[in-house]
Records
---
Amino acid sequence: MYGKGRIIPALIIFIGLMTAPMWYGSGDASKLPNPEKPKGYTECVEDTQYMRTSHMKVLNDWRDDILREGGARVATTANGTEYVRSLQNGCMKCHNNREKFCGECHKYASVNPYCWDCHLQPKEAM
Amino acid sequence: MIEKALKGNKGYWAWLMFLLAIMGVGGMCYAQQFNYGLGITGMSRDVTWGLYISQFTFLVGVAAGGLMLVLPYYVHNYKAFGRITILGEFMAIAAVAMCLMFIIADLGQPMRAMNVMLHPTPNSMLFWDMIVLNGYLFLNIICGWQVLHAEYKGIKYPKWVKPFIYLSIPWAISIHTVTAFLYCGLPGRHFWLTAVLAPRFLASAFAAGPALLMVIALIMKKVANFDVGQEAKDKLVTIIGYAALVNFFLLGCEVFVGYYSNIPGHMHTLDYLFFGLGHGDHVFNNLVPFMRASVVMGVIGIITLFLSRVKKCDGMLAIACILIFISLWIDKGLGLVLGGFVPTPLEYVVEYVPSAVELGITAAVWATGFFILTILYKLVVSVKRVSES
Amino acid sequence: MDSKRRNFLKIAGLSAIAGIGAPSAFNMLLKGEALASGGHGAPAAQGEHGAAAVTGKRYGMVIDVKKFADNPGLAEQCVKTCHSIHNVPDFGNRKDEIKWVWAEKFQHTFPEHSQYKKNDGLNELPILTLCNHCDKPPCVRACPTKATFKNKDGIVAMDYHRCIGCRFCMAACPYGARSFNWRDPRGKDENGNPFIKELNPTFPTRMRGVVEKCNFCVERLAIGQIPACVEVASSAGALVFGDLNDPNSEVSEKLRSSFTIQRKPALGTHPSLFYII
C-alpha cells in the first residue's frame, strides 16, 4: 500500500481519538445506580417506570401548564395524596436528597441537567 | 475545486496563519465569556447591546451589498461585472457567517439558540431575521458555488440555479430591511423609531459592501494579479458614490426632523452622538469624535471617489473606498446601535466602553470572516485563471 | 393527550387560521399576542387608560405616591421584601444591577412630564417603579422564543428555562423594567459574600444569561395571597391591587374616584399600573 508508514499509525490514532469517550467512560457496568427512596412514602405522582423514563417530561409539562395555561399548582395522586406540582416545592419534599436520588442515575447516565442552577435543593435552602 | 485553496504562496499561508492566530486568541476570550457570563463585556443594564450587535447590524449591510453586483450582472446582463460578481456573492457568505457568529456571541444562553426554531414566534422580528439571514447564506452558497463550479468544469451553470439567483435579489433587500425592523419597531427608543431606518440601512449597505469589495479587488490586483477590469471599477464607483450620498441625505433628514421639530426625544441621541449630552453636571461625549470623524471621512471619501475616476488612479480609489467604508462602519457599526441606548428609557445617560475580552471576540469573528473570504477568493482566482486562459 | 400532540394541533390550528384569513394573521403579527385577552385599545387621545378586556382578568395596580411620602421608608421596605422573597441578587454596582421594583425620582419615572416649574416636593418623592404589565407589551412582541408572554390574567410573565438571553425585550421595554443576569446570581463577591444574602427556599433563583423582571407575584396569587409589595404597603393603603376588568374590584373603584396617570401612555402599551401623584 502506498504511504503505509504514515496511513496506518494515523488510522490508529484517529480510531483511538474517536473512541476516546468510550475508553474514558468505561467502568464497571454491573454497578447499577441505586437511588435512595424516600422513607414513609409508598407512591409517586405516576408509576415508577413512567417516572424513571419521563420525569423530565412531567416537569416540563407542569411548568408549561402552570405558567402558560394557568393550570393548578396542586394535584392528587392515584391514591388521593395531595402534592404540589413543583420540583423545588413538590418532588424535593419527599426526595429530599438530590445527590442520593437524582445524582445516582444522572451520574450513571452521564447527564448534567442544570435544574440546580436556579432551583434550590433542600439542603442548600436550609 | 476546494483543493485549489491548499496551494498558495508564502504570503497566502502567512495571512491565513495570522488570521488563525487572532481566531485562537478570540476563542480563548470566548471561553472566558462563556464561563463568566456576558458581564465580562462592557454591556450593562442600561446599554444592553454593544459591539456584537452593532457589528452584526453593519455586516448584514455588507452582505446585502453583494446585491449591487448580482443585479446588474444577472438581471441587466451587464458583462463588465463578469469577474467581480462572484466576489460579491462570496463576500455575502463571509459576511452572513460573521453575522451569525456575532449573534451567538451575544446570547446569554447560546446553548439554547435553537429555541428560536423550537418555539417559532412570527411576531418577533428576530425570528424573521434568523430566517432571512440563514436563507441568504444558503442562497449565496448555492449560487456562488454552482456558478464557480460550472466555470471550473468549463460548462454553463445548471438551469435550476437561475431561480435561486433571482430569488437572492429581493432576499438581499429583505435581510437588511428585517434587520432595520429589529430597531425601528421598538416604542420608546426615539433614535431608532424612524421609517427611514430601513432605507438608510440599505443605502449605507450598498455603499459599504461594494466599497469593501473594491478595496479587496484592488489588493487582489496587487497580490494575486487578478484584475476585475476598469469598466467594472468605474461602474462600482458610481454605485458606491450615489449610495453613500443617499445615506448622508437620509442622515440629514433625521437631523432636520430632530432639530426643527425641537422634540427632546428626537434630539437627545443626535446631541449625544455629535455634540455630547449633558446629564447632571457631566457631559457624556464618548462617541462624539468618532461620529464627527465619520462625517468628515464620508464627505472626503465621496469627493475623492469621484475624483479618482476622472484621474483613473487606483491609489486614490483605494483611499476613497477605505474612507467611505470606515465612515459607514462608525455610522452604523458604532453610532446607530450604541447611540440608541442613550438616554435610557428613564432618561439617565449611561455610556458603554467595550472590554478587552469583548474586543478579542469581535476581532476573532472578523478574522474568521476574512478567513472564509480568503479561502473562497483563492478558489475564484484559481478557477478564473484556468478558465480564462 | 400528550403535550407534543397538543402542541402540534395548536400549531396546525393556528396555521390553518393564518391560511384562511391573511388579514387576521397579519393582525396577529402586528399585535404580537396570538391570544389577546381583550378588544382593541381606545385611542390615547380619548384619555382612556387602556383597553378593557372583554373576558378574563387583567391585574393592575394603583400606586398612591402621596402615601409613600407620608410613610418614609415604606418604598424601601416594599423593595426589600420583594427582592428577598424572589431571591433577587445584589451585585453592588449599576452595571450588573438586577431589580424587580425600585424607588425612582419623579423626573425619571415620568420623563415626559418635565415642566419648567413644578411642585417642590415632587423631586424628593420616592416613586415606586416596576414592570407595567402592559396590555400591549412590546417585550412580548419582541421575544423570539415566547420566553416572555402575557398570561391569561394579564400578567407579563417569564419562562427562564426558555430565555436565550438575546435581550431584545430589554431594548423593547420603554420602562427599563427588565434586568439581565450578566453574571452568576448564585456567585459570591471578592469578599466571599453571596450576591443573594439569604435564599428563600420556596422560590428559585435565576441563572446567568437570562432576563428577569417583576412577575406581579404570580406564585403568591396562585395560593390566594396578594403581591408582596402590596401586602407591605397595605396598612398605609399606598398600593391597591386587583382585577381591572372587574368593575367592583377595589382597584377599579380607586381608579373611578381618583385622577391617575400612567407612564408614557402615548406609546400605546396600555400599562396596568396607575399613579396618583
Note: Strands of chain A lie at 74-76, 82-84.
---
Amino acid sequence: MRYLGYASTFTLLTIIGAATNATAGEVNLYTSNSEDAVALVLDAVAEQAPDIKINVIGGGSGSLLRRIEAEQSAPVADLFWSSGFSTLAGFSNLFTAYESPEADSLLPALQTESAPWTGTNTHVTVIMVNSDVLDGEAPQTWEALMDKRWAGQVTMADPANSSSSYAQLYGIYQLYGEEGVRNLADIVELQGSTSGVYKAVAQGEYPLGMTMEYAAQRYIHGGQDDISMIYPTDGTFLSPEGMALIKNGPNSEEAKQVYDLLLSQNLQEQLFDLTFRRPSRADLDDAIANSGLPLMEDINIIEVDETEAGEQRDYLLELWADARG
Amino acid sequence: MAELILQDIRKSYGDTEVLKGVSRRIADGTFFTLLGPSGCGKTTLLRIIAGFVSPTQGTVHFGRDDITRVLPHERGVGMVFQDYALFPDKNVFDNVAYGLRARKLSSKEIQRKVPEYLEKVGLGGLESRLPAEMSGGQRQRVALARALVIEPRVLLMDEPLSNLDASLRVQMRDVIRSLQLETRTTTIFVTHDQEEALAMSDEIAVMKNGCIDQCGAPADVYRNPKTAYVSRFVGSANLIEAEFLEHGLDGVDRYRVQDTLVAGRTMEVAANGRYLMIARPENIKIRRKDSDPVGGELEGRIASFQFQGYRTSFHVVLKSGEDLHVETVGEAETSALGRGDNVIVSIGEKCLFVPEASA
Amino acid sequence: MNRFFPWGFLSVTALVFLAIFVAYPILGVLFRSFIGENGAFSLDGFETFLTRGKYLEALMNTVILGLIVTLTCTILGVFLAFVVARYDIPFANIVLLLPLSVLIIPELISAQSWVMVFGNNGLITNLFKALGLPFPRFYGWFGLIYVMTLTYYVHVFLAALAALRGFDHSLEEAGQSLGTAPFTTYFRVVFPTILPAVLASGLIVFTLVIGNFAISIALAQRVPLLSVMTYRSFISELGGNPTMQSTLATVSILLVSGVLFLQKRYLSKRNYQMVAGRSTPRIKLRGWKALLISGGAGLIIVLSLMPALVVLMGSFTVSRGPVMYWGQFTLEHYVRIWDFNLAVIGNSLKFASLATGLGVCFATLVSYLLVKKRSVFSPVLDYLLLLPLTISGTVLGIALAQGFNSGPIVLSGGLLMVLAMMVRRLPFGVRNASSNLHNISNSIEEASVSLGVPPVRTFFNVVLPLMAPGIAAAAILTWVTTVAELSASVVIYQAGQETLPIQIFRLISSDLMARASAFGVINMFIILVPVFFGIKVMKVRLFSS
C-alpha cells in the first residue's frame, strides 16, 4: 500500500516538474570557456533572464564544433561560444546570422557583417618574457626578435595545429614577407599546442615566447614577477574570437537573449576582469586601463584580412614547412 | 541399477587407436574391474561410459537404452574420482546433497537422505565440515556418498584409492565393497593395482593396449591366466621358454623346459608353435641340492633372498642363466638356505603353458 | 551430441568480438598508413617519416629513453628486491605496499606532482633558489628518466622479488659446499637463475616506456618522442587525412611487436621453475651497512609515495591563475569541483564501471574457454588477446576512433571509450581471472556434470566460486587502470564526456596545477577505495601472478 502512495506522489511531482519546465526557457550552450567564465554567464542570466535555464556542454572548441556538425540533422545546440574566426569559418554552414542590438557597441574589427558570427573577445599577440632566464635586453620588435642571437630561445605554437599561432605567422608574413617567414623559422622552436608556449616560458624553458596577451597576463596578475610582455612596436596582430547561433537550434529565441547578454557591457567587463581577454565592446577602456593593460589605441595593430589569411593557409604552411626543413 | 552393454567400442585420437573394439555385457549389480597399466585404455573406456568421451565407433547401453549419444549430465551415472573432486567451497552436506538438488528433490527428502548415506560411509555427524578439514580417507568417503546418494544406474570409479596410503587403501576397499553389495549398484572400477582388483571384484577385465586380454572372476583369472601378460599382471609369474613335446590324455601336455620335462595345461595354442611356461613363485618348491634334478626339476643357485616374516622370497639363478623368483610360506626346510647355496627347484603340476607371443 | 554448444559457440563469439574491436581497428590503422592524400596507395606517410622534421629523431629518442629507463628500473628494482628478500629491514611491510602506490597514483598525476616539486616554480627548486643553489632543469631527459623510473621500477621489483623468494636456498648451500664463498655463490648461482624473470619484466618496462603518453606529454618539452608525436598528429589531422597519425601508429606497433617477438624467441624458453625448496633466511643488518641499505630502501619508498603527498598538498594550495602560493591554503578548488564539475566525476565512474563490469565478465569467460575448454579456436583467441599488448593507448584510441567513426559500424564516443578501456585491459584481466583456474582440476567439473548438472550451470555453480579470487583481482586491477586511463580516452572522447584524467590533462595544459591537483586527489580516492576494500575486506591478492 505504501508503494502506491510513493508512486502516485512521485508521478504527481514529475508532472508538476514537467509542467514547470514547459513554461521555463532553456538554452543549450556549447562552450570552450573555463568554468569560472561560464559561471559568470550563468549568474548574469540568473539575474537578468531568470526564466532561462542554461545547459552547459563544455569541451575543446574543435570537439564541440565537430559535435555540432555531427548533430546537424537534429540540432541539439543553441549557441556556441567561442572560437577563432578562422576556425568558425570552417563551420559556417552550421550557423545562422543574428543581428544583435548590442552589435553597434562593438569594435569594428570584431563586428562581422557578412558572417554568421559575432566577436566576443580578441586576443593580442605579444612577446612573453621570462626575465629570469633572459640573457640581455628583450627585443622590442619582431625584426629584433628574428635576429640570429635568439636562435633556440624563442618558442611558438605549431601553426599547423593552432589557429592563433597561424594568425601570428600570417602577420609576420604580411609584415616581412617570405624572408620574414624564413627568419622566423630559423630561430623558433615549436610547441605542440597553444598552451605549451606560455607554460614553457613561465617554467623558464624559454626566455621568449610568441603568445597571447591574456596568457602572459595570467602570470603577471598571478604574481609571478619574472614574467612580462612586450607589444612589438613594428606592429602586432589581433586574433578575434566569436560566438555563433546554431542553425535550427531548438531554443533560438531564448538563445538570442543569451547572445545579447554575452555582448552586454556588464558581463563583458566581468569576463575581462576574470580572463584578461580583451572584450569586443569598444566602451570598456576604463576596465582595461585598471587592469594595467594598454588601451587598444595605444597598441600598434596591423590589420589582417581574415579571408585572405584563410585562403593563403595552404601556401603559407607549405612555405613554413619548407623553411623549417 | 542396470545391465551395462558395451558393443565394439573403439576410440582413436588421430592415428592412435586407444581402444580397439571392446565388447562386454556386464550384469546388473556386478562389481566389474578394469585392470591394466597406464595407457591400456581403461580410463578412456570408463570415460566413454560416463559420457565425457565419445567413442569413434560402437555403442553403450544401459539396459535397453542406447546412451551412446546421451550427454553426460543426463546419464544418471555416479562417479568417484582419484582426486575425490569434492567442491572445496561447499561443506560435506552440500557436497553430498549436490546431485539431489540438481534432481530437484524436496528439502525434506534431502535432509533425510544425506545423513543416511553419510552414516553408510561412516561419516555420520560431519555434515558441516569443509573438505579442507578432512583427511584423504574421509574425503573419499564423502565422494562415495555423494555418488551413491543419487542412486545411479551405474557407479564409475576411476582409481579412487590411488591417492590414499597403504593401510587406508585396504580399509577403503572394504567400505566400498560393502556399500556396493548393500546398494547392489552396477559398478565399474578402474585400477592398476591387481591386489585391489582381486580383493574387491566380481569380475576382472585385464586390459592391454586397448583390448581386453582376459575377463573373468578373480580366482579364475588368477589360477587360469590365458596369456603371459595376464599371468604377470595378476599375481606374479616366472616365464620360461618351453618346447612343446606332445599332447597328454587328460589335458595335461608335455613340454621340454630347459633340460627337464614338465607337464601342465596349455591355455592356448600358439600359432608359431613357441610357448612360455608360467610358474607362479608360490607353486615352486625349493630345496638344497643334495642330488641331481629329476623330471620337473631344475638346478640353480640362490643369488639373494628376502626374509619377510611369514614368507621368504628367493631370487634363484638357474644353471641356464635365467632368473627364477620363488616364494615359500612358513619356515620349513628353507630357513636353512642362504645366499650362494646350490638348490633344486621343482616346478610341479600347477604350471601352465601359453603362446610366447602373448607376453 | 552437439559438442559445439555451448563452449564452441562462446569461443566463436569471443573471437568475433575481438576480431571486430581489436583486430579490425588495428588493421585499419596499418592499412591507412599506406593511403595517401588523395585516397590512393602511397608511401608518402613513410617517406615523410623518414625524411622530414623530427620523426626519426623522435623514434631514436623513444628507443634510447626506453633502454635507459629499463636499465635504471632494473638496477633499482633488483636492488630493492634483494634488500627485501635478504635482509631484515625495518620497513619491509611498507615496501610491499609499493606496487600498490604505483597502482593508485596515475602517471599523469605523478608527472604533474614532480613538476610541482622540481619544475621552475617548484617547491624544491624555489628552496634551492632561496639558498642560492642552482637546480637542474627538470623538463626533458632528466624529468622523463626520473619519473618513468620511479613509475616503472615496480615491475622489475616484483619479478625479482618473486624469483628471489622462490629461490631454493639449498642450491646456494650446495654452491658454497662446493667451494665458492657466499658472495661469489650469489653471483654465480642465484643471479643467473633470476635473470630470466628480471629480463622479462625489463622488456615489459621497455614496451611501457615507448608507449607511454602521460609522462611523455607532461615532461618531454624539447625532446621529440614517438608517442607525443602520434597524439599531436591525431589532433592536427582531425577532420582531415589520417596519414601521419596512421604512419606513426604503425611504427609504434612495429616497434612493440619487434620487442615482443624478441621476448618470445629468446626469453620464454629460459624460465627456470624452482621446485619448491627452502627459502633463504633473512639476515639482520648491523652498523653502517644497515644504515646505508635501509636508508637507500627508505629513500626509494619515500620517493615512490611522494607524488601522492605533493598532489594532496597542492590541491589545498592557494593559486592565482597559474601561479601557486605554496604555504597558503584554501578549499576553493574542491568547492569549485562541487559547484561545476560533478559531471566529470560522474563520467569517470560511469565509464569505468561499465568497462570494468564488461571487461571482467569477458575476461572470466575467455580465461575459462582458454584453460578448460580448448578447441580449434583457442590458438586464434590466444593470439588476438596478445594484440592489445602490442599497442599503446594512444594507438588504440586512434585505431578505434578511425575504425568506428565511419564505415560499416559507427559507434559514438561513450561506447567507444568503454570499449577502449576494456580492450586495453583484457590480456591482463584474462591472466588474473585464470590464475586460479589451473588449480581447479577438471574432475571437479566432471563430478558436477555426472551428478546431473549441465555444463553451463556447472560453470556457475562450481567453477565460478573457485575462480572468485582471481576474478576479484581482475576486477580491482581493471577498475584501477580504467579510472586512470588517459591516452586512449583523450583521443576518443567527445564534448561532455570528459573523465577525471582528461580533465586533469586539460587543466595541466592550461597550467592550472592546483585545480588539477584537486581532481587528482579525487581520482586517487576513487581508485583507492575499491583497492582498499578488496585487499582488507575481501583479502584479494593482487600480485600473485
Note: The interface with chain C takes residues 30, 34-36, 38-39, 57-60, 62-64, 66-67, 132, 158, 160-161, 189, 192-193, 195-196, 198-200, 202-205, 218-219, 221-224, 321, 324 of chain A (CB under 8 Å).
